[in-house]
Amino acid sequence: MFYKPSEGHGLPHNPFNALVTPRPIGWISTRDKDGNDNLAPYSFFNAVAYVPPQVMFASTGVKDDVDGTKDSVANIRETGVFCANIVEYGARDAMNLSSATLPHGADEFAHAGIDKQECDTINCARVGGAPAALECRMTQIVQIEGAANYVVFGEVIGVHMRDDCMVDGRFDVTRFEPLSRLGYRDYSVVREVFEIVRPDD
């Protein structure tokens, strides 16, 4: 099958999300200028550079009570910081609850019963007990094609790693089983890893 997105796919559901998988989930926490905390999952999320360490997430769509975007981007525009929390399989239900569309200023931590802790280097909350949390200073917000498509880039200036995930000096993802997004309503979990040595190593 071949289709041009501009002409439609003719299928019952859009296949695009199912093609680029699995995708890590960035559980993005922000705080607005009035001190209201927000937490939302984004599957358009990844690390993009080593030195300095940088991550990105993309927000698509609009909330009726936010000007042209969603709460996360609006808050980052105001404060210039955010935290990217890593989602484990055990937090899948809480992560899903935090994706609910709530009024601007509502606290998804409270709504989903998620433990909240303060970040160390930025004025922002993070997910307590998350396997890892990346405290970020926003470097760019780039609007891409589409009315409400924004990519947020951040430099990681503080890193939290849960002690039980550290094994022999390495961060072991099998200790917490990362959750990832597939297409449609499908998710996956990492339980098995293997190593491939590059030809140059």
UniProtKB/TrEMBL annotation:
Domain Flavin reductase like per the UniProt entry, residue ranges: 18-173
Pfam hit, one: Flavin_Reduct
UniProt xrefs under SMART domains: Flavin_Reduct (SM00903)
GO molecular function, one term: oxidoreductase activity, acting on the CH-NH group of donors, NAD or NADP as acceptor
InterPro entries associated with the record: Flavin_Rdtase-like_dom, Split_barrel_FMN-bd
Record SUPFAM superfamilies: FMN-binding split barrel
Signal peptide: none
Protein name: Flavin reductase family protein
